Amino acid sequence: MLGEDDESRVVRVGGGIELRFHELARAYPDIVDDPVLDFLVTARSELVSVEVSVRTLDGDGLDVFLAELAEDFRGWEGLRTWRSLEGDLTLSARHSGRSVYLTWGLHDRPPSEEWRFEVTTAHAPGEDMRNLADEISLFLESEPRP
């Protein structure tokens, strides 16, 4: 679900544990056409609160990855995976025939890599996945904060 939060675009994913994509920013705002985008991903529920800063090159194609999953609504064999530039956010997708299961991984940055957190969200193939891809695309294309 796409919304506004503190004057910035927010994408919320999930049910029991909510994933929030927010606070999009350019890593080097003084560089013209800087491709490095940073944003926060927060996983939150009554029992957990985890936040990671994600570094990408113009989103690393996360929206394209999700759009391809939506286009393959009839299903695929095995696991499809995506990772951000520095591996702080990972995503794996499995199609069960009735649902697409997305496992979102939030990771501590190297070299420490002391922790990692994963949560799986279920989505209907096709339109539900297309909406998620569109929301992530709008988020990544929104005006980064200074």
Describe what you observe in this structure.
By secondary structure, this protein is of the alpha+beta class. It has a single domain (2-141), classed as Roll (Transcriptional Co-activator pc4, Chain A), CATH 2.30.31. It has two helices and nine strands. A hairpin with a 4-residue loop joins strand 7 (89-95) and strand 8 (100-107). The chain is globular, with a radius of gyration of 15 Å. The mean pLDDT is 88.
Summary, kept brief:
Helices cover 17% and strands 45% of the residues. With 146 residues, it is of the alpha+beta class.
Describe how the helices and strands are arranged:
Layout: E1 2-5, E2 8-13, E3 18-26, E4 36-44, E5 49-57, H1 62-71, E6 79-83, E7 89-95, E8 100-107, E9 116-123, H2 127-141
Antiparallel strand pairs: 1-2, 2-3, 3-4, 4-5, 6-7, 7-8, 8-9
Helix pairs in contact: 1-2
